[in-house]
Amino acid sequence: MALTITVAAITCLLMILSVLFFPAVRIKKFGISTYWLITLLGAVVLLATRSVDIKTVGQSLIANTAINPLKILVLFLSMTVLSVFLDELGFFGYLASVVLKKARGGQKKLFLILYLTVSVLTVFTSNDIIILSFTPFVCYFCKNAKIDPIPYLSAEFVAANTWSMLLIIGNPTNIYLATAYGIDFLSYLKVSFIPALFAGVVAFGMLFLLFRKKLSTPIESVETAAIIKDKTLLGVGLACLGACTLILAISSYIKVEMWIVSLCAMALLFLITGAISLFRKKPPKALLGCLKRAPYPLIPFMISMFVIIIALEQNGVTAAIASFMGSDFAVVKYGVASFLSANLINNIPMSVLFSSIISALSGKAALSAMFATVIGSNLGAFFTPIGALAGIMFGSILKVNGIKYGYLDFLKIGVTVGLPTLFAALGGLCLSLLI
User: Apex CA 336: angle with CA 335 and CA 342, to 5°?
Assistant: First the structure.
């Protein structure tokens, strides 16, 4: 047990340090993220020292269960590709342009419109895609309008990581935790709606109070240019994403697993777009862009963390943690613990770990703990930059644009906005579970 705990702890510590100080290494023109290399090394060490049974790992990877990490990866990656395709065609940039043109009533109006737009789009795509798409545009607009970008960047980041808890597809942590406990699309939504609503309203209120003085200054009129690159392909992309979301909502009733639905939607997108490209005799640039931008490092990262968690399970560590946590006051205990733990080991490995811990519970306690952990995994993202991959991407984009938004800035938002939002969401969860 001691060796397993030591290797797991060192792996998590080195991963945090890599995120803060060495997020990527460059080999000629290629940049390689270091966080997944470290977790992969940790998993290899545990396998080499026989701290985890390789046969058990192999069986888990091919098992026909909801917690199979390969199924979860297929679901997340295929949904990501559907969203990235729209971004490649300029859809999100165009929406941002339209939103910003409506801000002639001043900064407060712009702030509200931006928050609402990001919230709605996050629900139907994912927090990572929105942050990747909207952050550069917000930086550009604020620079040209000569206004402080921090309120808008904070609003965008908080909205994306708050409303991502509403649907099961909004965050890979939602997908992992919900599918691990057999929660389907609509069953998830029934419980998550009130917590997400409470959290979204409180988050906006706290952000507005925090930045109300900065939002009182006048704003210059700035023209923002953004166009749809191909309306036909955009229609195809929206149709595939919309159909996928609708079928996911009824997947449990038609007895089709969610990963199959999303994979078929992605395959259909590729087939139709490929056929259109052949007809036009032009290369499928949008598809190639999807393939380039897909989050491939997530594959070795999640599988490596899965190996580490299996090692902790086999050596009795997760059982000991579950015994310590108990089943009383599960919403508060697991909500706060997951929120804080996400900022120690990142929200994805935290979700894998907590999924194992929650398996020791049963009935309503397990359901309460699972949804509380979902809340912590989403809201933990804006407490520190380590809390989620979204925070890592967010920080790197701002650095490229010359905007300072460091650890203390995250912590400021985390304390003033994150904590009230967390307890609002947990309160909403308690209410939702009573209904």
Answer: 90
